[in-house]
Design goal:
The chain has 267 residues and is α/β, with parallel strands linked by helices. It has a single domain, classed as 3-Layer(aba) Sandwich (Rossmann fold). Helices cover 33% and strands 21% of the residues. The strands form two sheets. Strands 6-7-8-3-9-10 form a six-stranded mixed β-sheet, sandwiched between helices. A hairpin with a 2-residue loop joins β4 and β5. α5 crosses α6 and α6 packs parallel to α7. InterPro entries: AAA+_ATPase, ABC_transporter-like_ATP-bd, ABC_transporter-like_CS, ABC_transpr_PhnC, MetN_ABC_transporter-like, P-loop_NTPase.
């Protein structure tokens, strides 16, 4: 369970980016965070995984406090948090298998990491997960030879190799075409259920948020102003979050009359 209480993040003397935010994520739920650029969505994820330091408040993952950690304690906490980035963050010159196994770097010795000699159990798990997401045939292929969707699947498997207690995804479909975006969202939804893993997704695409998540959290100016089921995410919620402007939609079609596009999920 992720428990965030009164979280504040301020850069220098500027206005706070996060303003006393409270949020709980538990079970195998898939939670979307939506909001306009500058709402604080990415900052929230970076506070959770320790990429930026929270100004005040509490972030607990399964009862362990994450705020204020330093050094080895911070590194250990990051091992428990899987992170998927918009830009994939793969090492292009390495093979798919080598990129996937980098998710185990925090669990092996310096010599093993340097020589990329991983235990057989890690290699077996890597093959199993790659097969699950449909990229096992690319194990020996260089990462820069893959399509965007294939690269994001590699990033998903790398995160899962950490055996994380929560999975964070920062705009995981923003660099992908509409069909591939749906496939990645469907994959994350399935993996959350299969692995009993909570997933927190920062996403601009409100249509996909409604189709592929169990809950939507809407943010504006560093505050949470909506928290509910996708079925409750109506035009009033859109107007409150986006200030009356049309919400972004990346599915490639024309928005529906109420601001949502009618589209069926891809399995």
């Amino acid at each position: 369970m992720l428990e965030i209480t009164n979280l504040v993040k301020r850069y220098g003397q500027n206005e706070a980016v996060l303003k006393g935010l409270d949020l709980t994520v538990e079970g195998s739920s898939v939670v979307a965070i939506v909001g306009a650029s500058g709402a604080g969505k990415s900052t929230l994820l970076r506070c959770i995984n320790g990429l930026v330091e929270s100004t005040s408040g509490s972030i607990k993952l399964n009862g362990h406090e994450l705020v204020g950690l330093r050094g080895s304690a911070l590194r250990r906490s990051r091992q428990r948090i899987g992170m998927i980035f918009q830009g994939f963050n793969l090492i292009d010159r390495l093979s798919v298998m080598e990129n996937v196994l980098s998710g185990r770097l925090g669990y092996v010795s310096f010599f093993q990491a340097l020589t990329r000699r991983f235990p057989q159990v890690d290699i077996d798990r890597a093959f199993h997960l790659m097969e699950r997401v449909g990229i096992d045939q690319y194990a020996d292929k260089r990462a820069d030879q893959l399509s965007g969707g294939e690269r994001q699947r590699v990033a998903v498997v790398r995160a899962l190799m950490q055996e994380p207690e929560i999975l964070l995804a920062d705009e995981p479909t923003a660099s992908l075409d509409p069909k591939t975006s749906q496939q990645i969202m469907s994959l994350l939804q399935s993996l959350a259920s299969e692995m009993s893993l909570p997933v927190l997704i920062n996403i601009h695409n409100v249509t996909q948020a409604r189709l592929y998540t169990d809950r939507i959290v809407g943010m504006r100016h560093g505050q949470m102003i909506f928290d509910g089921a996708p079925s409750e995410f109506d035009q009033a919620a859109l107007d409150a979050i986006y200030g009356g402007i049309e919400a972004p939609d990346e599915t490639g079609g024309e928005p529906a009359r109420d601001g949502f596009q009618t589209q069926e999920p891809v399995a």
